[in-house]
Amino acid sequence: MEHNKYASISLASELKKYFGFDSFKGNQEEIIRNVLNGNDTFVLMPTGGGKSLCYQLPALIMDGTCIIVSPLIALMKNQVDSIRGFSIDEGIAHFLNSSLNRAQIITVKQNVIERRTKMLYVAPESLTKEENIQFLKQIKISFYAIDEAHCISEWGHDFRPEYRRIRSIVSEIGNAPIITLTATATPKVQNDIQKNLGMMNANVFKSSFNRPNLYYEIRPKINAVKEIIRYIKNNEGKSGIIYCLSRKRVEDVAEILKINGIKALAYHAGMDSATRSENQDKFLMEDVDVIVATIAFGMGIDKPDVRFVIHFDIPKSLEGYYQETGRGGRDMGEGQCIAFYSYKDIQRLEKFMQGKPVAEQEIGKQLLLEMVAYAESSVCRRKTLLNYFGEEYEETNCGSCDNCLHPKEKFEGKEDMQLVLELILKVKEKFKAEYIINIICGERDSMTKSYKHEELEEFGIGKDQSPHYWNAIIRQGLILHFIDKEIENYGLLRVSEKGHEFLKKPYSLMLMLDHEYTESDDDDLLSTRNGSGGAADEELFAMLKDLRKFISKKLNLPPFVLFHDTSLEDMATQYPITIDELKNCQGVGEGKAKKYGGEFIELIAKYVEENEIERPLDMVVKSMGYKSGAKVFVIQSIDHKLPLDEIAHAKNIEMDELLTEIEAIVNSGTKLNIDYYIDYTIDDDKREDIYNYFRNEATSDSLEDAMNELDGDYTEEEIRLMRIKFLSEFN
């Protein structure tokens, strides 16, 4: 057979000749030999393991052109530029995608026909175009390489429907060996990829998923922005990536980092491609230290010295998490992987799935549950991750994750594990973890009723423990391989061979409870309306309230005109002792800080000295408060006496939302004169009544109190407008 002519080639000398390397990494040589032998090849290799060489070297050695299917235009360009860097012939590698004009496409096709091109990168969308299919039928194809192959599977973290058409297109163009490559694939995803591409008999090469240099940690999502700023400032000059789920969150986090003196840029798919490329290059060239990004950033980014990967929002799947953390420490140096977890984020992600096809929702929910299991589990993070990818981690303590460095106390779980395994068998291994827990906790629903599972002796037997507790038992049963999840019907629990052996001869099992994370709202620093979180120093808070009351009487003003309770709470947490520090507290701003702040910072400075208080590093964190661009627009519009309803329309928001934004501006100490709008919309007598209430009777600026006290024919909007006028006059 023709491929046998490559059998005698020295791969070491070819590697040196084309790439200048002296040796292969891991099982690269074995994979390349398999491709040269004309076999279908499945490569599962973590980020940084050297996947691209596995198809690049055989493509350079073999006759014909290798067709490489790749999902991202930026990734193709990086790969082609890289290959051209090793060759004097620019035509050796090309890409064919929507970014090329007609003349460029003609050049590419000409180079391919002339047999100059050894590697042709195509987007799956380009591969399906009829003119490209007809063109590719004319050339000699050495083999097909399907990069980022997890995109084929609906169970993968980056599913793309067009990837599922590759097999039929390949058959139409002309069959040749296939090599598929991915950095993340669970046994379920691997099975799905091989089945879809018709390569169940492929030789499979799996590299270890263990990245020993990476440190994994999950933190509760409380004051996440402050935590991130503190972390970055303690690791000055190091490169890092911060992942967020939404474009707005990316921009907000990037902005607040810049406000706090951190060299950071945003990256997401909503930006124009020139800005994206520029920001990516600045990160690669170290003009900036931090990229804040959605998952659009990362595929093919070959920066070896990323020292930290922070997930501001928990990802949609464990595969996504693994791939994104894998961008840290690719040079085997330090790589800190920190994720902030709140169950509210999970609930948001579930909400986003509504409206999608039911099957897609079900898959998404199962992937999210795996993410929850990882975050809440107190088992070694490395063990949990590797188990998810079908790999056994034998060490009892990895020494490089939060759970191993700060282990939870263990308890005897033998009997409860027996109970779970026996129940899975009793219900014929046809149900998911959530339903098993419902039975144990005695939760009645339509399913327990229709299957008559309320009659089981196990029904309600474990209701003295929480569902959270039973979740921990099941999760550790999966880690111990007593329980498996079916590949075909993902999520259904079945008892493994090892689980059956345990039931025959039970033995002591020391298990751990899962983490229970405190719930919190989105970080105040990113919020337009900063909510009250309570003062850290109750004694100081009480003293500040007394001072506010004293000054307000002296000035003959209601106390809330000076500072809101939320501002005092922040002062009692941050301990500001200069006007500059004070103006960064919630709802203060420069105007209020200068006008009313002197006596407050004097009191705080004295309190700090007398009580020998070590002030928090958080004090360097500057609040983004109200978005500057929107603030300027509103202030300028009001200065030009534009009607408020027109301003709301121009910003595409409701009137209620505009008033909230105006209140935020006024509360931070900026004067706004809205008399022109009030005179036009509110009767004289109403204006006087509401104003007098806030001037002489109100003890707080509460809207609810005002509605109750005024007890007349006043709308909420009228009261809010007059409250804005009143507060603005004393700024």
Task: Describe the model.
It is a single chain. 47% of the residues lie in helices and 11% in strands. The strands form 4 sheets. The chain has a 7-stranded parallel β-sheet with strand order 3-4-2-5-6-1-7, with helices on both faces. The chain has a 6-stranded parallel β-sheet with strand order 8-13-12-9-11-10, with helices on both faces. Strands 14-17 form a two-stranded antiparallel ribbon. By secondary structure, the chain is α/β, with parallel strands linked by helices. The protein contains 35 helices and 17 strands. The longest helix has 19 residues, at 358-376. It folds into 5 domains: 2-206, P-loop containing nucleotide triphosphate hydrolases (Rossmann fold, 3-Layer(aba) Sandwich); 214-404, 3-Layer(aba) Sandwich (Rossmann fold), CATH 3.40.50.300; 414-508, Winged helix-like DNA-binding domain superfamily/Winged helix DNA-binding domain (Arc Repressor Mutant, subunit A, Orthogonal Bundle), CATH 1.10.10.10; 527-620, Orthogonal Bundle (DNA polymerase, domain 1), CATH 1.10.150; 628-729, ATP-dependent DNA helicase RecQ (Arc Repressor Mutant, subunit A, Orthogonal Bundle), CATH 1.10.10.1390. Residues 528-533 have low confidence and may be disordered.
**Termini Cα gap:** 87 Å
Total helix count? 35
**pLDDT averaged residue by residue:** 86
Annotation, overall tally of beta strands: 17
Q: What is the spatial order of strands in the main beta sheet?
A: 3-4-2-5-6-1-7
How much of the sequence is in beta strands? 5-15%
Helix content: 40-55%
Question: Which structural class matches the secondary elements?
Answer: alpha/beta
Q: How many domain units?
A: 5
CATH architecture of the largest domain: 3-Layer(aba) Sandwich
Uncertain residue ranges: 528-533
